[in-house]
Every structure is written in C-alpha cells, then in structure tokens.
C-alpha cells in the first residue's frame, strides 16, 4: 500500500481542475428544514406521501451476486478515476432495478437533551418508487415527528423531483480541482476539491474521494452552501459509500446542523443489508396505492 501511495503522489502536480460530467448526489440533510420548529404543519402522525409498493416475493430477495468490473492491480490516474466514476454512475442508473435495505436513523438535539432512534425497512423500485416500513422507534416523539419525518420525506421528494440532477457533481454545477491522494478507512483514494459555481440549494462545498484502483465513490464531505430555512445557520456532513457487486450504495451519513432555535442537532443515517429482488421490476404488482400514513405510527 505504501508503494501504491507513492506512485499516486507522482500525479499530484499534474492534474488540476479536472471535471466530471455527471453524477447526482442527494444531500438529504436539507431535510432539517424547520426541524423541531413547527413552521411547516405536518399531517397527523407526520404522514409521508410515499408510494406504496407490493413485492410479489419480498422474502425472496438475495444478496447481490453479480461480479463487478475487474479492479486494476495498480492505481489509476485521477483523470481515469473520474471517467470510471462517471461511467459507473451511468450504468447504475440504467441497470439498478430495485433493492431492499435496513435503515437506522439516530438524531440528537444536543442543547435540548432529546434524542430518537428509528429503524426502518426501505424498498426502492426504479425509477421513482420508495417505501419505508417502520420496525421500531425509541426516544422522544418530538424528534421523530419534527426531524426524522422531514428527513424521510425529503428523500422521497428528491427521488420524485424532475429537477433532482440540478445538484449533480458536474462541470455545470462545480469547479473540480484535484487535491492529491490520501486514505479513507484504509483505502487509497484520489481527493477532489468541489466548489459550487452558484449558491444553489442542495449544492455543497467540500471534497469528494474516489477509490484509486477502481474509481468508485468512497466519501463526500462538506457543508451546504445554502440552507433551506432561515433557522438553519450551517449544515456540515460526511457521506460514506460501499461497493456491492458493480454498484455503489450509501452506507452512512453523519451531519451536524446549527440552528437558531434548538441549537446543535446531529443526525446519523446507517444503511445496511442491501438485497435485490430476484424478479424486479416485474415483482411490483401495485404502486401509488395511497399515502403511507403508517410510516411514523407509534411502536
């Protein structure tokens, strides 16, 4: 690994202001809009307008077994990593038909000494169907109804928004500068500095890290350049990703928000146990049946 890192350092001065053409990222932390403030009225029990889906064989899901593309035994250049990254995102958008996963959300209102932990099962069917099924909740209902509910709703809204690619990491939205090599969780990565060209909701200033051997996304970190509410002063976040077969999935999001009314808020979202229906998308036999009123019911 030391030898590989030394090879990568030789690229440091050669690649500046490299551009990547297209990959959408969803900053779900913008869902802290009005968190714990009550400015936006919520339906009873914080109903989420998610589309309900029915899998013909939900239990008949298996871990992904397809093989990813071969990984180079030597580090690839920063420019090549960006090109592979772009192709991988295009392929995932075209080929990923659906999945199920376990989501665990933990929220702490540090200055109010309130917290909550919510475990859910998520079902995604391409291209725009997302369902959450509650498993268990512990903690303060105030946190569940005013922070977690908005977090989940923002993810659904982003998925269904026809303008979701307005926040893509690409040359139209960002200035991208190569920042050298480093390690993230033991993986050698290429680092890129991201600076938005405009102050637009959903864009962030920070860094992106790509695996130096296969070009896959490993981590995003930074701060939102524009918060969605006056009460949010600053939102900083870190997003870690993992590879499953040929695809890359979000593993963990950690965010810290400074607000004007409830002080500091931390949010952690863990995704695990990704599984892929053996018959998707034909397994979907119903959709858009009704609002998901039971998502945040008492448990």
What's this entry about, in short?
With 299 residues, the chain is an alpha+beta fold. Helices cover 15% and strands 40% of the residues. It has one domain (2-287).
Description:
- The chain has 299 residues and is α+β, with helices and mostly antiparallel strands.
- It has one domain (2-287).
- Helices cover 15% and strands 40% of the residues.
- The longest helix is centred in the middle third of the chain and has 20 residues, at 141-160.
- The chain starts with a helix and ends in a 12-residue tail after the last strand.
- The model is unreliable at 2-67 and 280-295 (pLDDT under 50).
Describe the SSE topology.
Layout: H1 2-9, E1 53-55, E2 61-62, H2 78-95, E3 98-109, E4 114-125, E5 129-139, H3 141-160, E6 174-184, E7 187-196, E8 204-211, E9 217-224, E10 232-244, E11 247-259, E12 264-277, E13 284-287
Antiparallel strand pairs: 1-13, 2-12, 3-4, 3-12, 4-5, 6-7, 7-8, 8-9, 9-10, 10-11, 11-12
């Amino acid at each position: 690994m030391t030898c590989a890192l030394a090879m990568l350092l030789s690229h440091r001065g050669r690649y500046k202001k490299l551009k990547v053409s297209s990959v959408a990222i969803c900053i779900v932390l913008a869902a802290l809009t009005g968190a714990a403030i009550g400015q936006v009225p919520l339906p009873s029990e914080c109903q989420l307008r998610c589309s309900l889906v029915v899998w013909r064989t939900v239990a008949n899901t298996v871990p992904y077994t397809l093989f990813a593309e071969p990984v180079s035994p030597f580090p690839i250049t920063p420019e090549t990593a960006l090109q592979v990254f772009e192709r991988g995102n295009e392929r995932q958008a075209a080929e990923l038909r659906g999945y199920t996963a376990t989501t665990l959300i933990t929220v702490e209102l540090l200055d109010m000494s309130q917290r909550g932990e919510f475990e859910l099962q998520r079902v995604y069917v391409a291209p725009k169907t997302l369902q959450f099924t509650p498993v268990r909740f512990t903690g303060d209902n105030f946190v569940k109804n005013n922070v977690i509910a908005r977090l989940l709703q923002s993810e659904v809204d982003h998925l269904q928004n026809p303008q979701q690619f307005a926040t893509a990491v690409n040359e139209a939205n960002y200035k991208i500068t190569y920042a050298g090599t480093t390690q993230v969780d033991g993986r050698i990565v290429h680092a890129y500095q991201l600076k938005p060209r405009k102050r637009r909701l959903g864009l962030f200033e920070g860094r992106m890290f790509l695996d130096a051997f296969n070009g896959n996304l490993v981590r995003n970190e930074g701060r939102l350049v524009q918060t969605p509410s006056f009460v949010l002063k600053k939102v900083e976040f870190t997003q870690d990703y993992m590879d499953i077969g040929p695809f890359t999935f979000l593993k963990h999001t950690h965010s810290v928000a400074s607000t004007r009314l409830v002080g500091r808020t931390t949010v952690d979202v863990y995704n695990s146990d990704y599984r892929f229906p053996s018959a998707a998308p034909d397994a979907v036999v119903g959709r858009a049946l009704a609002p998901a009123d039971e998502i945040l019911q008492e448990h």
